[in-house]
Write a sequence for this structure.
């Protein structure tokens, strides 16, 4: 299984005494009724975690999530898991390296995670474009004939996916499958919330000159509650596809605010995608970092405060 045994060593945050679960790009520390999400600078591509980190990537993504959690709560009243972002106020052990954790750490409520990715697509791209070419539908949602890659859809569509184990692909599934597994009530709540959050995010991004082509959300349930809340990351370039609005040209792939430099370099290399991936050159790392920072500054209107 790709990536599961190939994670680079975790940075030493001084939290060795806490139970931890490692994901592809994050450490999740268990604090009892709360969790500590620490976004590393690791980067993944083609289901592999690469051996080279992108400096400040974890801070960029965390700060983008914080921006969106606050905006969504203000505009929609959306409940989310974020409790605190200032590491000095998190009650961490004395051994914690606060400087290393600053900017990349969120103290969050612990939830029971809904085992589906809640994907919303406003444009036809990625796996959605591949599915459309086969049967003029995405995850069972029929679409009009004659659409081309990167076209705007008549209206955003909700296309759930199963959550994969580390190193595997998420699998697109029908809404009916999700409703069957979760129950009709919860599935409908998730669909409504996802479409609402996507539209709010897309409108806000467009005001900043960026198209939010698609995104995926995760939701969780607090103990004793049946109402899902937004968890994980929110509308970051790792969970979303952003394009510059003034360069949108349907009919092919679009320039994007994510790790496209990394993917392009790997595709042009002689790496076979079945063995350990190669280290990234310094210029690819620098351009990738710059693209993430550009996304943060464009979306938030603020300067990036690290590096």
């Amino acid at each position: 299984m790709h990536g599961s045994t190939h994670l680079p060593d975790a940075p030493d945050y001084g939290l060795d005494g806490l139970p931890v679960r490692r994901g592809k790009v994050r450490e999740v520390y268990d604090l009892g009724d709360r969790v500590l999400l620490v976004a590393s600078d690791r980067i993944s591509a083609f289901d592999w975690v690469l051996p080279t980190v992108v400096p400040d990537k974890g801070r960029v993504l965390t700060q983008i999530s914080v921006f969106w959690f606050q905006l969504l709560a203000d505009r929609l009243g959306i409940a989310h898991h974020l409790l605190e972002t200032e590491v000095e106020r998190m009650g961490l052990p004395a051994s914690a390296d606060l400087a290393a954790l600053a900017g990349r750490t969120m103290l969050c409520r612990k939830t029971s995670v809904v085992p589906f990715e809640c994907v919303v697509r406003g444009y036809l791209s990625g796996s959605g474009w591949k599915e459309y070419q086969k049967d003029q539908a995405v995850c069972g949602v029929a679409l009009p004939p004659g659409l081309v890659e990167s076209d705007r859809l008549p209206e955003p569509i909700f296309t759930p996916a199963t959550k994969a184990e580390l190193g595997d692909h998420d699998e697109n599934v029908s809404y009916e499958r999700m409703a069957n597994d979760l129950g009709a009530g919860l599935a409908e709540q998730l669909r409504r919330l996802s479409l609402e959050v996507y539209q709010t995010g897309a409108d806000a991004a467009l005001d900043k000159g960026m198209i939010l082509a698609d995104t995926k959300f995760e939701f969780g349930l607090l103990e004793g509650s049946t109402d899902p809340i937004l968890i994980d990351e929110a509308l970051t370039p790792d969970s979303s596809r952003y394009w510059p609005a003034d360069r949108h040209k349907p009919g092919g792939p679009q320039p994007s605010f994510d790790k496209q430099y990394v993917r392009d370099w790997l595709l042009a290399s002689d790496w076979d995608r079945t063995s350990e991936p190669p280290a990234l050159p310094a210029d690819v790392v620098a351009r990738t970092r710059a693209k993430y920072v550009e996304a943060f500054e464009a979306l938030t209107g603020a300067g990036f405060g690290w590096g």
Q: What stands out?
A: Residues 112-247 form a domain with the D-amino Acid Aminotransferase; Chain A, domain 1 fold (CATH 3.30.470.20).
